UniProtKB/TrEMBL annotation:
Native organism taxonomy: Bacteria, Bacillati, Bacillota, Bacilli, Bacillales
Ranges of residues in domain HTH araC/xylS-type: 189-287
Classification via Pfam families: AraC_binding, HTH_18
Organism: Cohnella rhizosphaerae
Protein name: AraC family transcriptional regulator
Gene3D superfamilies: Homeodomain-like, Regulatory protein AraC
Length: 291
């Protein structure tokens, strides 16, 4: 991570809100948590410039105009738009034009915040999305401000729930309306059926694409878009799920189960299973046999 750097021109109104939070150790390990949250009415020459901060930032424009520079590109910010950025990367955002830029914002973090950010970036090449008037984002940030103004025993827990709503909304918006079952191409459905029925065979992306008469690039891209996983990642998931079934409901040796699910190297199977479940196959079997 680059060295931290912050430069701010604090040209916001006296009635603007800025609240700083210090999350508990438990919140840092278990929840999504607020680092700072606020509601600004800002005007030129307001700007914030920073880099190297371990934080994610969500900004929602309520009214007026702003500008964001992030990853060497500039974006206009208008009413109903939100941006989601990683503050370890250089950013500069500012009020723009003659009027007041009204913005709701929250600095947040948490163990899985990076996963939401990766999902967001996977759908949206730009950090700015059109949230629209019906978005839950502004309301949730206002609720976060209220929680941190009148802190009580469940502030961190309820904040985590609100932040989950904000992060989920951002990913959903970035992904568009999302594909429905009727949108899935026939060859993707066929690929799913092939994997589901032939998971015990030696399947590769090349063999799947050849059997379906499509390029492996198109198959991989469409499969990820409509199923949510790459074809081989889906194959591994199916194999692990069937391995769990064999471990729970049969006495078959580990090596035999590995072979049944299409993995001929038992050491690789054990490593793969532990990576996906946190347990070795034997430990998983013992855990379930003791219940």
């Amino acid at each position: 991570m680059p060295a931290s750097y912050v430069n701010v021109s604090p040209a916001w109104s006296a009635d603007s809100v800025r609240l700083i939070a210090t999350p508990s150790e438990f919140a840092r390990s278990a929840y999504y948590f607020v680092q700072e949250v606020g509601h600004f009415h800002a005007a030129v020459p307001y700007f914030t410039e920073r880099e190297g901060i371990d934080s994610y930032l969500v900004v929602y424009t309520v009214a007026g105009s702003g500008r964001l520079t992030y990853r060497d590109k500039s974006y206009s910010l208008a009413s109903g738009q939100a941006f989601f950025i990683d503050c370890r990367t250089y950013q500069h955002y500012s009020a723009y034009g003659d009027g007041t830029w009204e913005l709701l914002w929250v600095h947040l973090n948490g163990n899985q915040a990076s996963r939401y950010y990766e999902a967001f970036c996977g759908y949206s090449p730009a950090p700015v999305v059109d949230a629209g008037g019906g978005s839950v984002i502004p309301g949730r940030i206002r609720e976060l401000i209220g929680l941190h103004r009148a802190r009580f025993a469940h502030t961190e827990l309820l904040s985590s729930r609100l932040l989950t709503d904000v992060l989920t909304e951002l990913v959903v918006i970035a992904s568009g309306s999302g594909p429905s079952p009727g949108d899935v191409p026939a060859y993707v459905n066929q690929a799913v059926r092939t994997i589901d029925s032939r998971y015990g065979e030696k399947l590769t992306l090349d063999s799947l694409a050849a059997a379906l008469a499509v390029s492996k690039f198109n198959l991989s891209r469409a499969f990820k878009r409509y199923i949510g996983l790459a074809p081989i990642a889906y194959l591994i998931e199916v194999r692990i799920n069937h391995a769990k079934e064999y471990l729970k409901y049969s006495d078959a040796p580990i090596a035999e189960i590995a072979e049944r699910v299409g993995i001929d190297n038992v050491s690789h199977f054990i490593d793969l299973f532990k990576n996906r479940t946190g347990l070795t196959p034997l430990a998983y079997r013992k855990q379930w046999s003791s219940r």
